[in-house]
Amino acid sequence: MNKDIVSEHLRELLKFSAIINSSLEIEEIRKRACEAIMNLVNCEAASLLLFDEQTQELYFDVALGQKADKIKTIRLKLGQGIAGWVAEKRQAVIINDVQSDPRFFKSADEKSGFVTKTMVCLPVMIKDRLLGVIQAINKRNTVFDEYDLELLNALSSQIAVAIENARLYDELKQTFYEIVLALADTIEKRDPYTAGHTKRVMEYSVKTGIELGLEKEDLEKLQLAAILHDIGKIGIRDAILLKEEKLSDEEFKIIQNHSIYGAEILQHVRQLKDIIPGVKYHHEKFDGRGYPFGLKGKEIPIIARIIAVADTFDAMTTDRPYRKGMSREDAIEELKNKAGSQFDPEIVEAFLKVLNKYER
């Protein structure tokens, strides 16, 4: 093998390894892994099949190349097809006449319209645990050889580490979300009339954010802020928070402090600094007549403007000790009437679209 070619392949391997391991988002890792395979061994298509431990199946989660969108929907049991065989035996294979191989799962080509001619397939493992299988398909202008397998074996190790890191990150994030939800639920249990309020506001908010086209990172901030928007109520005395009669003006001013209390609580957690605006400003009004600071229009962070609509709608449609909740129709009319004054009209419009989609 020409030394220059080997050096080039090593550079490519290092470059793609750095790219693959630069993200903790599993979708990005899968996509970059397939790009790396195709570039490294010069093939027409590549697939990363992940192993579902619960169902004991492999699934094409990402496939690049011709007909990729169809390829990625296929699931294989252990032992089924070449990939299933590789997963079951934990062995890599080079096959330069795929169509005549008895292990070949022809349904994959039939569903995708792609013709698989040659293939390198090898397991992706971390220690002794199977994470998935990678495939390089149809070497351009020649056939696969042992050198291709060596390159992909080195890449497979990097892919395995990246997938495992992403999995651990997801588990940690999920644990964090569960702790946050438990905290919100504990606060909510102080007031039996708000049961389910936090979850509903969170769902309304996230769906509205999706309708507005928010990026994934902003949706995550929105979700956490919606869960914790009332955390400051932990600093409000029960005599006021649980009062069954209408609050006096003085008591209402005390209740208003919960958004400030919430921000003060969250500022001690560095990872939550980006969600503080949603908690602190969700009672601001679009016309500047809200609290605690009288912010106006787009001065109010978008996550706070979204939570304001979701929170108000749920409050209006929920029974309280001193009043019965509005009907869905009346609450919708109230949102429309207050669009431009209390609420951002664009967000009200998106929220109403969400209601039509999910609550018919």
TrEMBL record:
Gene3D superfamilies noted in UniProt: 3.30.450.40, Hypothetical protein af1432
Limits of the HD-GYP domain: 172-360
The HD domain, residue ranges: 194-316
Pfam hit, one: HD_5
Domain of life: Bacteria
InterPro entries cross-referenced by the UniProt entry: GAF, GAF-like_dom_sf, HD/PDEase_dom, HD_domain, HD_GYP_dom, HDIG_dom
Coiled coil: none
NCBIfam families in alphabetical order: HDIG
PANTHER family according to UniProt: CYCLIC DI-GMP PHOSPHODIESTERASE PA4108, CYCLIC DI-GMP PHOSPHODIESTERASE PA4108-RELATED
Protein name, entry field: HDIG domain-containing protein
